[in-house]
Amino acid sequence: MSDIIYTTPLTVRQIFRFRRCIIPIGRREGQLTDIIYGDVYFIINFSMDLLALFICGRLRRQTFSARRALFAASAGAGYSVAELYMSGGALPILLSLVLPFLMCYICFGYGSAGRYLSSVLTFWLVSFLMGGIMTALYYGAGKAFGAKRIYINGTAETIYSDIPFPAVLIAAGVCGALTFVWNRTAGSRARAKVTDIEITVGQNRVKTTALCDSGNLLTEPIGGLPVILVSKELEERLIPGGIESQLFCGDPRKIRVIPYESVSGSGIMYGLIPDSIKVGKESRRGCICAGASDLGGFEAIIPAQML
Fold first, then answer.
1. Residue 27 pLDDT more than 80?
2. DSSP labels for the chain?
3. What domains appear along the chain, each with residue ranges and CATH number?
4. Mean pLDDT of 132-139
């Protein structure tokens, strides 16, 4: 490690730019220039926020809507860029505390107070953990590829070298391969899995065996809850007269109109949010919808994310 000693007093100046150009960091009349590229800064924060929201959704077993997650991650990345213009004080701290609540509301909805606060707390913990891991990887890789020490106003600072682009490609390829293998393995297990479920609507409670289908990606449009397809027979046992009989006499807060699209065409189905759903011994939130009469010999098909 070589030392670069600045004998003249230095000040650190940040230049914020959206245009990607190469400007060296160095000494200019006693000034150290630190350049921040706004587009790169936005993309980095956007990708990390999106990954944190995805992990939070998986840990909380909540529906992950790509469109809502993109909006939530954009809000987080947009604030990170706007924060560069803030001069400090209490406002950035307050906004940083409020932002996770907004992001989780956009991505997962509100539901109940307990569920909402639990999502925010999980998102915070995931973000802190990811930040620590990325910082450790950055400094570890920086030391591996070389580092330099400089002295600014008598204070030692370490500048780590950039990670070579081929090394980034190799690391990305390894992570992508591991992710692909994991998804194929987990997906094949989910496709072949059956589980016991219990659905309660009012005074009617039905226990049955359901098939887990990773291809069932239906969600209801208001809260993004996953949809369980049930047979006509199971629908009658739960709701005499069927879900459509509840359109005008049932609780309107539990009725959902669900658009769908399949290889045979598109349309809408009527769904209902039950009073409770148990998958195995775990309570889950979801919506039931009457599917075709033939569900592969099962009375219900649940999405893999509800396991």
1. no
2. --EEE--S--EEEEEEESS-------BSSSEEEEEEEHHHHHHHHHHHHHHHHHHHHHHHT----HHHHHHHHHHHHHHHHHGGG---SHHHHHHHHHHHHHHHHHHH--S-HHHHHHHHHHHHHHHHHHHHHHHHHHHHHHHHT-EEEEEETTEEEEEEPPPPHHHHHHHHHHHHHHHHHHHHHHHHHHHT-EEEEEEEETTEEEEEEEEEETT---B-TTT--BEEEE-HHHHHHHSTT-GGGGTTTS-GGGEEEEEEEETTEEEEEEEE--SEEEETTEEE--EEEE--S-STT-SEEEEGGG-
3. 3-163 (no CATH), 190-306 (2.40.70.10)
4. 77
